Amino acid sequence: MVRTAAITVRCRSVVGTLLMCGCSLPALATPTAQGLQIPGSGTSGLPWNIVVLLTLLTLLPALLLAMTPLLRLLVIFHFLRQALGTQSVPTNQTLAGLSLVLTFFLMQPVGAAIYQQAWIPLDARQITVWEALDRGAGPLRQFMLKFVREKDAALFVELAKLPPPRSPEDLPMRVVAPAYMLSELKVAFQIGAVLFLPFLVIDLVVASITTSMGMLQLPPVVISTPIKILLFVMVDGWNLLVGSLMKSFS
What we know:
This protein is an all-alpha fold. The protein contains ten helices and no strands.
């Protein structure tokens, strides 16, 4: 009985202590609204810069092909590989990587202008998203208009049933972008044809020599391909080609 009474007294003392401290327990156990507040969910609004960034990342491959020199560079490099007779060297990944590096090099001034005119005011919440897109399209339109042929621009103006513009700067982007792609494809095929000519001459000479010697069982490509590669290396072909391509965009 004595032990039971002692245990009961101890339990009552513990319960009393908890009741005395009860006023501070809810403050620790109950989460406040401030503790559950989500960062950035206050009155600042939706972070539009993140939305714009994610949208641009989704459209980045299409934008690179339609509005940058990447299209011309890729077509020319594939023409060069076929002219050399090397079917898989350099690989597609190598040609794409080289084209991307050269594209970033050429588009760096345009990207800097877009960053200054559109992204910085948008990040500072001085302009809206649509105003930022309109400002960012300006430097890109000026770059593309330098390489758009008048014939291609007139074609898409006619297809879009738009009135004739007073100046090229009045053309909308839905006309400038496809006209730019057509102009780039034409230039790329012209340069590719010029690249093919010297290697085609080598193929013809080797084929005529092997045929006259009676080497019918040995394909002429087996002999002409090392000669073409050796000639391309001796004249420092990559330096000449890349230098000419970079100067064509200046």
